[in-house]
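I hope you will forgive my troubling you with a question about protein structure. The matter concerns a single protein, recorded as an amino acid sequence and a row of backbone structure tokens. Please examine both parts with care and let me know of anything in them that strikes you as inconsistent. Here, with my thanks, is the record as I have it:
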Amino acid sequence: MSKIIVLITAGGSGLRMQSETRKQYIEIGKKPILAHTINNFHVTDRVDEIALTVPPDDIDFVKSNIIGRYNFHKVKNVIAGGPQRQDSVLCALRVIEADENDIILIHDGVRPFITHDIILNCIESVVSSEGSIVGIEPVNTIKKIIDGRIESTLNRNELVSVQTPQTFRFGFIKKCHELAAYEKFYATDDSALAEKYGEQISGRKPIISVVEGNSFNIKITNQNDLVIAEALLDYLSI
């Protein structure tokens, strides 16, 4: 049976939050955002182990004040991240001990409202595909802009607003990241690497499916998001 691994990236600086505290450590409901995120995976029985990427100087802090404080025994690795998120993911993939066919879910540390159902659906999604993303249909009209002017209006029925986790077979996504590092190619998410290198690795165009997300699965990046997060926390009674 495949091992289920969760990789949580928590390398944010907090610049957009305008806070001296890194955003992943800011408390909502008297608990760090990162602790909320870890807990949602920790209490999911299907998850076997968790790895974190954090800024190098934060490793001891995270081990003591988050992992130890909340008894997150499924966290097996706390890994020093790189300059960019993609670098951090590759650092982790090189450290985590896993077989080619094990399943890895890659998640943003500042998305603390991921649900049990989405996690399970992500795990099941790779039975019939090389990987999956979590996404929701855009509710706003999306327009293409060039030089500050509207070029065209995009068809919302053909678009998806992407969240995390993004889920893959371990060997497949590690090879994608290694190729990207070799070519010095950077993308905004892991699935873009699967799109670019998947055919080269698998010998055919990879199937990347979409798992239905949730509008509550927000990414906390600024002060407005913190207000929403506190309200969500109260509403969901977490």
